Amino acid sequence: MALEVTASIVLDEAEIEESFVRASGPGGQNVNKLSTAVQLRLDVRNSPSLPEGLKLRLVALAGRRLTRDGVLVISAQRFRTQEQNRQDARERLLELLKAAAVVPVRRRATRPTLGSKLRRLEGKARRSGIKADRRGRPGTDED
Fold first, then answer.
1. Which of 17, 23, 77, 101 is most exposed by smallest CB count within 10 Å?
2. Where are the domains of the chain?
3. pTM for the predicted model, two decimal places
4. Could you tell me the fold of the domain covering 2-101?
5. Could you report the per-residue pLDDT of 44-81, keeping only the tens digit for each?
6. If we measure between CA atoms, which residue out of 97, 111, 13 comes closest to residue 54?
7. Concatenated DSSP letters for the chain?
8. Cβ neighbours of residue 4 under 8 Å, at least 6 residues apart?
């Protein structure tokens, strides 16, 4: 089975490593007995399914979730069942991959228009006039 990131990018399930660990927090007596929290691991740097551009953006987005070896680790322990935590972790992985799949639009430098330059200068002149009126000019008493 495969995880579809976009129409052109499909991640192979074999690349995702799952391990179940004990969760912290509430859960009653089961919290000490059952391993309900899930850790998903995806080797981003060595993944054959992911294009290079996506890998670079994913590394930038992942932050602390990425190990030194380039492995993305997603932990989920929000729910009390293994299956719900597993689904939650997969959804979060998919969200992260979809965010990294979006190629940012490069900004094209533009020059200010003549109208915008004139408006800016008019605003500066107006502001300058207001400040000049506030200053007490020597020789003028307004009492």
1. 17
2. 2-101
3. 0.64
4. Double Stranded RNA Binding Domain (3.30.160)
5. 888 777 788 888 888 888 888 888 887 888 888 888 77
6. 97
7. -EEESSSS-EEEGGGEEEEEEPPPS--GGGGGT---EEEEEEESTT-SSS-HHHHHHHHHHHGGGB-TTSEEEEEE-SSSSHHHHHHHHHHHHHHHHHHHHSPPPPPPP-PPPHHHHHHHHHHHHHHHHHHHHHS--TT----
8. 10, 11
